[in-house]
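Q: I'm writing up a methods section and want to include an example of the input and output format. Could you take the sequence below and give the corresponding predicted structure tokens, formatted cleanly so I can copy it straight into the document?
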Amino acid sequence: MRTKLIILIILLCSVAFSAPKVTVIISTQEQLQLHVFINPISINDLKPIHVLVGLPNNKYPELQVQMLNKQNLSGLTDNIKVASVEWIQKQKLRGLNVATLKIIPGSDGRNNDLYYQEMTITINFDSQPIANNSKMKDDILSANVINWSVAKNWKQSIAIKRPKVTAESPSGQWLKFEVEKDGMYQINGTELINLISTINQHDTRSFILYTGSNLGRSQSQNPGAPTPNENLAEIAFQYIGSSDGTFTENDKIIFYGRGASGFDINGTNVTFNQNLYFENNVYHLLIPDDNNLRGKRVTEYQNTYNPTINLDYGVQYQHIETDFINPFQSGLGWVEQSVSTNNFLEKTLAVSNPVNDISPRLIVKFQGGTTDNKVRPYPSNKIAIRLNSQQNTILSNMSWTGQNQRSVTLTLADGSLINGSNSFYLTNNSTDGYSQPYFDYLTLSYGRKLNFTGDSFEFYTPIHSNPINFDMSSTTRPTIWNISDTKTPASLLVEQSGNNYSFNVSPVANSYDRLIVFNAENVITITNLESLGMINFNTLRNSTIQADHIIIAPNEYLNVASKFISHRTNSIFASLEDIYDEFSGGNPDPMAIRNFIDWTQNNWQSPKSIYVFILGDADYDYRNITGNSNNVVPTVEVGIIGSYATDDRLAAINGRIPEVAIGRFPAQTVAEAEDYIDKLIEFESNPEFGLWRQRVTLIADDAARPE
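A: Here is the clean output for your methods example:
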């Protein structure tokens, strides 16, 4: 026991001796001066130091650095890195402009066996400070900002960024349904009357269609990405029925729906967006109580330019991607299947009426893989790509080493595609027997001759910046919408000449138009309508709540959480279901939690919430592809190789530093959560004193020898 105590004292003293010390020498509104003292035991102690500094504005201040007192460091096996001091990021945190100062202890770059033991860092604030508008205490800033005693005078009150009317929604009967993929859909009047028996008392012109403000796709998880101003976005639709607003069961709602995954266009860049977090997109149809409201409807496309270009084809995109496997069982690296050496995969696409004088474009992506990660963690991979026959010429060889991702973009020869089924053969030609890469996705774009046979299809204009007249052959009159803005599609005027039809569009500069051709009698029927009754989407999305502590968990954890709320004063339970409904349009997007936390900081009453407690486990498998996911409350997975999970990004609004103190108990069941809450309450209510409080457990791992 005595020997253990001596070892523990030595360990604690070693940690204290090697830890760098940062001291404030001067702190005024004009200047901050820091002294850094470094006394390392080994080169491993010369690690970067991060210091959070409060600023009077959003500009990086001038730095003056003086390095002193070079010292030898014994036992060196590597050269000491060059010492440096730099700003690495700035953001607004809880109303205060802050920046992170990165201090790297090290050498002068000439004598790599010597290090500077001391640094003096002078920061000059050259702008007039902003007058203090907030006198409130802030535990997070005071504990982390090194010059808080001065910087607190620069803290601003957090302004309400959004009008409070965004917390309101029209009253009425709400219906909910989901859409799996992009395309044309219809809601039949018979479905509506089955769910709302009094619907014939409502004016059909007041009906409003909504989806989440991200229009079905998942929200960006990049640090500092903007949060959406609105929860729901209204979608224009075509109402087939009486023009005076009278409802009959033969009426139809026709609309362009967006799934969770699909192609997105940004200017001239068309890319497939694979949603890693949810598989279907939620829509809401509101039947308002107020018959005087008017919902958005599809209008006729207005083309005021005379076309100068005539085309009979458009550009069509097709994509193959199915997420089956996560090779690392962590992070965001989902793939379909692997291919071992001397074997091949066949991926087939149905191509319609390819234009022979337009070069198709192919993108293929793989992720490296190995049959034995311990023996061969960096295999040599080689994938040969062929079209329509294993005996045809190789289009490209993808060669790379390791388990990272690799993609190739190819321009295929004119006329290489056939009308109908086209197969791409992906052969593992590696001579490395351990190579087993995973197929990720394949995207094909090609010129499609405009020939309509009744089945809907999308295409993009091949050019931009010029008015275009399109010619299309068809045995039936097509309906064509411009869906470049999916919230407000526009119906194109189609002129007929025998079995040929023509229509015009005018793409703006540096942006293709996106169009869809369909027959209104041959679209997908929505059959999963669900009545929600009268809801307001403002349980949490309002400006009347004040709470210090927020507990986030699914509704089934409410009774357990209520114990903790009674124990902790000024606390509130925020159900995960309400967060999804009110901050991501009903979709289970992890960023809904971030949107909610942002709302609390900008719209709830002061003093703002400062603690967020997540009750529930998280899992990399958001969609439960494996069937074994323990995802109760999602976190944010970052990266593919060397990935990690972090809740910080759920609470970081303006940069990388969280706005609130956030923590989690990873309960997989309600019973586990209840056991933890009971123990926590007992520990705080009836503390047990004794020698056990003086015991310390140190846990470490050797990254080089994880076994």
